[in-house]
Amino acid sequence: MEDHWTVGSVAELAGVSVRTLHHYDEIGLVRPSARTAAGYRAYLPGDVERLREVLAYRRLGFGLREVAELVGDPSTDAVAHLRRLRGLLLERRDRADAMVAAIDRELEVRAKGLTVTPEEQLGMLGARLYDAIGGAYTATRRTDPRIAARIWDALGDAQTVLNVGAGTGSYEPADRDVTAVEPSAVMRAQRPAGSAPCVAAAAESLPFEDRSFDVAMAVSTVHHWEDSIAGLREMRRVARRVVVLTFDTDEPGWQDRFWLTRDYLPEFAALLAEFPSLAGMADAIGARAEPVPVPWDCADGLFEAYWRRPAAYLEDHVRRAMSVWTRVGPEAEQRAVRSLSDDLDSGRWAERNSHLADLDAADLGLRLLIA
Length: 371
Hints:
There is one protein chain. The chain is an alpha/beta fold. The chain folds into three domains: 5-71, Multidrug-efflux Transporter Regulator, Chain: A, Domain 2 (Orthogonal Bundle); 78-138; 141-370, 3-Layer(aba) Sandwich (Rossmann fold). It is 46% helix and 13% strand. It contains 18 helices and twelve strands. Helix 3 (45-59) crosses helix 4. Pfam families: MerR (PF00376), Methyltransf_11 (PF08241). InterPro entries: DNA-bd_dom_put_sf (IPR009061), MerR-type_HTH_dom (IPR000551), MerR_fam (IPR047057), Methyltransf_11 (IPR013216), SAM-dependent_MTases_sf (IPR029063). GO terms for molecular function: DNA binding; DNA-binding transcription factor activity; S-adenosylmethionine-dependent methyltransferase activity. This is MerR family transcriptional regulator.
């Protein structure tokens, strides 16, 4: 087997042009690191592996800048990239499957001459929300070390930890005995090899005895539960202590804390209209609340993460890992993206938000409940 490959042979194998490979070389995305006997540049196995990752992300719709960040992540190896790509593909497959099933149901109804309600027509877009967005999580939703430090400090000396609504495993402490709970099959499938055992269950009905764990934790998940208060009480039942990262809607004018919801996505407020108050959640488990500022370069692509990097919200793969966009619907999303893009191009966004330029972190409503 060859130990290196020429630019021409790699182009043929990958189904791309030599010009594309030269461009990737010029911008430092994939550089062939060997030389042939005749002095021409050639690819080593590691170069080919990186090219495979670049091309895979490109075919999933990622821009070159985002691809460079993904393949350049020093904490991500080839296996992690494969798992991430698999998750993204699963997302597309599951979303397509859900929409096909919804279309089939509507066709059956129409074939019988029955009226299809607006709710039924739009249901295909919101079907299986967490499964539909879950496949995108591994691309942008990573553990941010500063937020993690706050959560892990709140865990105290707990040795047994239950992570409720665990998703793909972000923020699970490596030095504790962790058990995860996650209802979404898509999310469970993306948990890294060697991660904590994961039980398929919902927060509102945890399959554990009273006080089975030292602490139960939940990170940015309470808003997805059918009954948030019931889920929190279940956490209190099965654990001696509870730590929850959630969102505060008690403060007057909370919708205006974040420029994205203030200026571009007013529909966000309606999404949380029935969400329990922070005080109500704290009372349910006897907790105190502490603010958790969002760093300007937050590694976890949660909804507020890019408050000082507004162009990120123009990227489809970034939005797909945020449940907000799926819930507000495509019309509101497209309008918000167009308006933000226009304001970034015109400089209006920069004028409105010039005070953010010197901030290292911002209080955008994230709160840690500690009981």
